[in-house]
Specification:
52% helix, disordered N terminus, 9-stranded mixed sheet, 4-stranded antiparallel sheet, single chain, de novo design (two linked rop proteins), EreA/ChaN-like  fold
Length: 437
């Protein structure tokens, strides 16, 4: 009996010590996190922006600021990024907004926020490839940028770009229209060439991918040849085309032909990882092109695309991925800041989707322990606590879309903004019906 009691006491003491150690680590992390973060007071757009002062410290002298998101449909993350954009534009003189949206369609949005041309609701709802962003939240951002631009001189106005390649048909239309003006003989020469336009679905690139997968290899090779020939022809005729149009117009068409060529390569690829990496490299290349023409860029994209370090995904854990953020970081270095997004729990009422509270040992769950609605956490600098440093510098889990991202927090992101509870974005009616169908 004495031996049993002794063993029980040893076990009790051991468990108590472990719990004490665990609690101590939790308290120290909370203490460190609260010291290196700022509570965000509201989602509402307000002229008082004192609760975002930490954003200026995180960004510093960086000229590229990447704003991530856990999913493409979270109202609270859209709202917080709206506030970040407003702050970066007004307080830090950022003049470029680049979005993970298709490049060919972005010129209409840019025309609206610069010149007020078009009805923004009609532009958004009638733009294939745009439906993901056709929300009340995004419309409010674009309307704010339009109103802001009205009071600025040309140099201070905010420009808009898309960086994605997944909807190339509209790009081809613009290219052929341009060739009609600058090189009609060549347009007639390629008039009957196969560019696969009937199987490309700009509204939903997964449909294009599926249709490409059903093509014979011989037809894929023809498409690869035709797209590449078009791109090379436009490159080789730079001087002639500029003399007939303008340098800016030619520059736009050249980038559209690059985008269409990369999209065709992506759709033709059968390996899922290679297909994704073609897209990541192309988006990075388009971002480089934007940066050459603009000093400061706000880049809105998914966490997966803006991670500065290698990561893996739960759906393909054997593959280490170096995405767009990794490629950008290799060139921009300290001139680039990536701010990831995290959340704890929530519900999408209309879709009957519930997000249970995040697991305690994940990035999301760890931040949930801070018991705050919205917070911006600075991951820069070092902690004197070895347990905290270990957490910051080892693989950890983060929820993204319907799976998980495994990344090193401090290497992947310079900061993380956290939302405790999430809800669904507000799609515009036309797009909502399109999504339902």
């Amino acid at each position: 009996m004495i031996k049993i009691l002794g063993a029980f006491l040893i076990l009790f003491v051991t468990v108590s010590c472990n719990n004490s150690s665990s609690q101590d680590t939790k308290d120290k992390f909370s203490e460190w996190a609260l010291k290196n973060s700022q509570k965000i007071e509201t989602l509402e757009i307000t002229e008082k922006q004192d609760d975002l002062i930490l954003l200026k410290q995180i960004v510093g002298n960086a000229e590229v600021v990447c704003l991530g998101e856990s999913r493409h449909d979270i109202h609270e993350q859209f709202q917080l990024k709206y506030r970040f954009i407003k702050y970066l534009v007004e307080e830090m003189n950022f003049t470029t907004f680049a979005l993970e949206a298709s490049l060919p369609y972005s010129n209409k949005i840019n025309d609206y926020i610069l010149n007020g041309n078009g009805n923004i609701e009609e532009v958004m709802s009638n733009m294939p490839g745009w439906f993901l962003w056709d929300t009340k939240e995004m419309r409010n951002i674009l309307n704010w940028l339009y109103e802001y631009n009205k009071g600025q001189d040309t140099e201070s106005k905010v420009n808009f770009y898309g960086i994605d390649i997944v909807a190339p048909n509209n790009g081809l239309e613009q290219i052929f229209k341009y060739l009609q003006k600058v090189d009609k003989p060549y347009l007639e020469q390629i008039n009957n060439e196969n560019f696969g336009r009937s199987i490309i679905e700009d509204n939903q690139w997964q449909i294009s991918q599926q249709r490409y997968s059903e093509l014979p290899e011989k037809e894929k090779q023809i498409l690869l040849k035709n797209y590449n020939t078009l791109f090379e022809h436009i490159k080789l005729n730079k001087e002639n085309y500029i003399s007939t149009s303008s340098e800016n117009e030619y520059d736009w068409i050249l980038k559209l032909s690059y985008s269409a060529n990369e999209a065709n390569k992506m759709f033709s690829e059968t390996d899922r990882l290679k297909m994704g990496l073609i897209r990541e490299n192309a988006m990075a290349n388009i971002t480089f092109w934007i940066k050459e023409r603009n000093k400061n860029i706000i880049l809105w994209s998914h966490n997966l695309h803006i991670a500065k370090s290698e990561f893996t995904m739960s759906i393909m854990p054997e593959n280490e991925i170096k995405g767009m953020g990794y490629i950008l970081n290799q060139k921009f270095g300290n001139s680039m800041v990536s701010i990831g997004a995290s959340f704890n729990q929530g519900k999408f009422q209309n879709e009957n989707i519930t997000f249970e509270p995040a697991a305690p040992n994940t990035i999301d769950g760890t931040l949930a322990k801070l018991n705050t609605d919205y917070i911006l956490l600075n991951l820069k600098g070092n902690s004197e606590n070895k347990d905290i440093e270990e957490w910051l510098n080892k693989d950890n889990v983060m929820r993204v879309q319907s799976f998980e991202m495994i990344c090193i927090p401090k290497k992947s992101f310079d900061a993380i903004f956290f939302t405790n509870t999430i809800s669904k974005v507000n799609y515009n009616p036309t797009t909502l019906e399109r999504l339902r169908n």
